[in-house]
């Protein structure tokens, strides 16, 4: 069995068991969780959940909804179940490939069943870049060719009308995300994430409502690091769970 580490998120409010090697939860997960508006009674689905970091951080702030974690790797899904149990969160963990309709249906993921979808999809597609030789990291970072559209189509298909999708992606794929999501979502909101004030954005947080016709909004950017290389006060507060991006 792969080595497992026990890590603390949100200033210790979330304890996460995750593999020591491969893709590990970090700042992207923190930012996505901080951008998730949850209302009482919402069905919240974390798509591509890995060991559950995003959903667990959202639940640590607001556990009023029903949480569903979707992960295709059975080993990561089992760690997700363990993390939910140890956090006291009653949740469903679906082992499913979100790109495969049969797999989704077999796992009980029904169309138009979610109020809020959270997703940190693999950032690359086959042929776009050199893929890591580590199988876990490669699976977390790369989709088949054309996979981003298929992933986002599946996510929006799970949303109820007026349900919200929130995702984080590479900033250089913003135009592609907007082109795809504009087919199903409106009221789109973008927030760019910069490593420092003088450097280009590296991530984009994107949110939208299914079936809305509201116009696009660009929110204030988030700067992660100050001139000294340390987290800015806002970024530090997000990592400690003392602030959100809502």
Overall description:
The chain has 246 residues and is α/β, with parallel strands linked by helices. It is 29% helix and 31% strand. It contains 8 helices and 13 strands. The strands form 3 sheets. Strands 3, 4, 5, 6, 9, 10, 11, 12 and 13 form a 9-stranded mixed beta sheet that branches. Strands 1-2 form a two-stranded antiparallel sheet. Strand 4 (66-71), helix 3 and strand 5 form a beta-alpha-beta unit. 39% of the residues are buried. The model is unreliable at 136-140 (pLDDT under 50).
Name the assembly state. single chain
Beta-strand percentage range: 25-35%
Largest sheet: 9 strands, mixed
Helix content: 25-40%
Radius of gyration: 17 Å
Average pLDDT, rounded to a whole number, is: 92
Shape: globular
Please provide the count of β strands.
13
Q: Helical segment tally? A: 8
Ends: how far apart? 39 Å
Strand-and-helix sequence, N→C? EEHEHEHEHEEHEHEHEEEEH
Which structural class should the secondary elements be placed in? Answer: alpha/beta
- The parts where pLDDT drops under 50 for at least 5 residues are 136-140
Would you kindly provide a brief summary of this structure?
With 246 residues, the protein is an alpha/beta fold. The chain is built from eight helices and 13 strands. The longest helix is centred in the N-terminal third of the chain and has 14 residues.
Topology at a glance:
Layout (H helix, E strand, L loop, with lengths): L3 E6 L4 E6 L7 H8 L8 E5 L5 H9 L4 E6 L2 H14 L3 E5 L5 H6 L7 E6 L4 E2 L9 H7 E2 L3 H12 E12 L3 H8 L3 E12 L6 E8 L6 E2 L3 E4 L7 H7 L7
Parallel strand pairs: 3-4, 3-6, 4-5, 6-9, 7-8, 10-12, 10-13
Antiparallel strand pairs: 1-2, 9-11, 10-11
């Amino acid at each position: 069995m792969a080595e497992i580490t026990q890590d603390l998120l949100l200033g210790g409010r979330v304890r996460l068991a995750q593999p020591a090697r491969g893709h590990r939860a970090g700042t992207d997960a923190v930012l996505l969780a901080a951008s998730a508006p949850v209302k009482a009674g919402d069905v919240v689905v974390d798509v591509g959940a890995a060991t559950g970091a995003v959903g667990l951080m959202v639940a640590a702030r607001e556990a009023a909804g029903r949480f569903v974690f979707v992960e295709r790797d059975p080993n990561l899904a089992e760690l997700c179940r363990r993390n939910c149990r140890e956090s006291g969160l009653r949740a469903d963990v679906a082992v499913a490939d979100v790109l495969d309709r049969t797999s989704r249906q077999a796992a009980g993921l029904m169309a138009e069943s979610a109020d809020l979808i959270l997703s940190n999809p693999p950032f690359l597609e086959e042929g776009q870049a050199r893929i890591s030789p580590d199988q876990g990291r490669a699976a977390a970072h790369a989709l088949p060719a054309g996979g981003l559209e298929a992933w986002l189509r599946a996510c929006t298909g799970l949303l109820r009308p007026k349900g919200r999708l929130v995702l984080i992606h590479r900033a250089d794929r913003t135009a592609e995300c907007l082109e795809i999501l504009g087919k199903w979502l409106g009221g789109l909101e973008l927030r760019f994430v910069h490593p420092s004030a003088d450097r280009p954005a590296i991530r984009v947080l994107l949110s939208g409502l299914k079936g809305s016709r509201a116009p696009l909004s660009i929110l204030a950017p988030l700067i992660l690091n100050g001139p000294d290389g340390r987290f800015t006060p806002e970024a530090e507060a997000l990592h400690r769970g003392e602030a959100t991006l809502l």
